[in-house]
Each structure stands twice: as structure tokens, then as C-alpha cells.
Amino acid sequence: MAEKNQNQYHPPESNGYHRSDQESVPTMEDEEAKRKKRMKWTIGIIAFVIFQVVQALFFVLVIMKFKSPKFRVAEFDVQTLTTGTQASPSFNLSFVAPIRVKNTNWGPFKYDASTVDFTYEGVQVGQAIIPKSKANFKSTKKINVNVTLSSVNLPSDVNSTLGSDLSAGVINLSSQGELRGKVTVMFMFKKRKTSLMNCTMAINTSTKAVQSLSCQ
Ligand SMILES: *[C@@H]1O[C@H](CO)[C@@H](O)[C@H](O)[C@H]1NC(C)=O
Ligand SMILES: *[C@@H]1O[C@H](CO)[C@@H](O)[C@H](O)[C@H]1NC(C)=O
Ligand SMILES: *[C@@H]1O[C@H](CO)[C@@H](O)[C@H](O)[C@H]1NC(C)=O
Ligand SMILES: *[C@@H]1O[C@H](CO)[C@@H](O)[C@H](O)[C@H]1NC(C)=O
Ligand SMILES: *[C@@H]1O[C@H](CO)[C@@H](O)[C@H](O)[C@H]1NC(C)=O
Ligand SMILES: *[C@@H]1O[C@H](CO)[C@@H](O)[C@H](O)[C@H]1NC(C)=O
């Protein structure tokens, strides 16, 4: 009875002591397991912090890099070309101008209506109208505009240059334009961007083909 009473009276302490004494080996295993668990947590936290830092760097260095979209004229086919003579130099030229707005940003570029001016020797010979629109996230907006260029408005001092160009069989043209808009990244970060077009092209009057086209 006394023993039983003692046993009944002491269980928490004796059991506690007995366990720690008897299960000294399992306890070391417990410690080992705890240590491993702590290690896992530490590695997990470090990995998480590294992930966060990499994510933040990616965000700042890649996504938040606002770049001006590229604004240019792509290669095209001349539809009609009529030229005057060297004595009476003139030209009429029509084609579908493939205007391209290449947006490499991580968000859309919304731009205002604009124009592209085609010039010969710095004098405007035609114009393409660019309606207000947008170039989507990492994509190229394609705008095809019918353009007619004519030398009717060229001043007389450009006449002789055109005459020699026509006898050489090539007409050099330029196209300039400015596209003003706003890039929006992640639906909230906005930045104004302006894209400039500055292209030159040479048109072969005998083949009626665009011989060279380059944009800055
Ligand atoms: C170009 O077009 C204008 C007006 O349409 C015309 O008067 C002129 O004769 C044309 N020139 C040529 C070379 O076709
Ligand atoms: C451009 O010209 C072609 C014919 O050359 C015509 O079919 C087309 O509808 C025109 N496009 C525009 C936008 O005027
Ligand atoms: C260009 O020269 C031709 C021939 O000399 C002349 O007939 C024509 O009127 C001139 N054009 C201009 C715009 O002066
Ligand atoms: C125009 O193109 C033809 C055929 O490719 C070529 O023989 C000629 O040299 C070109 N003209 C000029 C001015 O480059
Ligand atoms: C036209 O452009 C070509 C190159 O594209 C160049 O070699 C040539 O000198 C230019 N001609 C004129 C009259 O500017
Ligand atoms: C366009 O590019 C030409 C060279 O091809 C350069 O001489 C000219 O200054 C440029 N114009 C603008 C407005 O940037």
C-alpha cells in the first residue's frame, strides 16, 4: 500500500527523472533531430532571404528599367513610282508604310496621336498619320499607313539635286517622327517616354525597290 501510495504520489517526478535517465540515448537523437530541424529552418530562412533579394534585384534591374520603345519604318514595297526627267525633275511615290513601335518594357506603352514626316533633302514630301494607340507588354505594334510622296512642293534650289539623283537612278528619303507616351509597369508604375524615329532609305528608280533602309 505504502509503495503503491508512494508510486501513486510520485509519478510525475519519478517518471520525469526516469525518462531522462533511461532515455538518455533517445534524447541525444531528439537533440540531433532538433538540431537538424533548426538547420533546416536556418537554411530555409537564408534561402527565402536570398530569394527576396534576387526578386528585388530583378524587379529593380529588369522590370523597373523603363526604355524608350523603338519607332521605325520597316522594309516595304513601292506600289507606284513615276519620275520626271533630269530637265524637269519630279517624282510621285506611293506605298504602304509599315510603321513599327517595338516595346521592350514589362508593361504597355500608350502613345498619343502623331505623324511621321517623309523628307527629301530636308523638305517634307509626304506624311503618315499615326493614330493614338498602344503597344502591348513586350510586343511590336504594327501600323500600316498608305503614304503618297510627291515632289510638287520642293523649292527650286532642291531641283538640281533631284535632277542629279534621278539621273543616278536613286532617290534618298528620310522619315522623322516623335511618339510621346507613357509606359505602365505592374499596373501602377508609370513613366513618360518619347520615341524618336530617324530613318533613311534609298529608292532605286529603275527597279522601284527600296535599296537600303536604316534607322537610328
Ligand atoms: C505627280 O502628281 C502630281 C499631282 O497629282 C502631278 O501634277 C504630277 O504630274 C505627277 N508627276 C509625275 C512625275 O507623275
Ligand atoms: C491603302 O491602299 C490600299 C490600296 O492600295 C487599299 O486597299 C487600302 O484600303 C488602303 N488602306 C487605307 C488604310 O487607306
Ligand atoms: C524645277 O526645275 C524645272 C526645270 O528647270 C522647272 O520647270 C520647275 O518649275 C522647277 N521646280 C521648282 C519647284 O522650282
Ligand atoms: C538599281 O538596281 C539595279 C538592279 O538591281 C542595279 O543594277 C542598279 O545599279 C541600281 N541602281 C543604283 C543607283 O544603285
Ligand atoms: C543616298 O544614299 C546612299 C546610301 O544609302 C549614299 O551612298 C548616297 O551618297 C546618297 N545620295 C545622296 C544624293 O545623298
Ligand atoms: C538622323 O540621323 C542622321 C544620320 O543618319 C543624322 O545626321 C541626323 O542628325 C539625325 N537627326 C536627328 C533629328 O536625330
From TrEMBL:
What GO cellular component entries does it have?
membrane
**Main subcellular location:** membrane
Report the transmembrane regions from the record.
Answer: 41-64
Which is a Pfam family this sequence falls into? LEA_2
Q: Which residues form the Late embryogenesis abundant protein LEA-2 subgroup domain?
A: 99-195
Which keywords describe this protein according to UniProt? Membrane, Transmembrane, Transmembrane helix
Localization terms from the record = Membrane
Region: Disordered, residue numbers: 1-31
Source taxon at top rank: Eukaryota
Recorded topology in the membrane: Single-pass membrane protein
Q: Determine if Transmembrane is one of this entry's keywords.
A: yes
This protein is called what? Late embryogenesis abundant protein LEA-2 subgroup domain-containing protein
Where does this protein come from, organism-wise?
Eucalyptus globulus (Tasmanian blue gum)
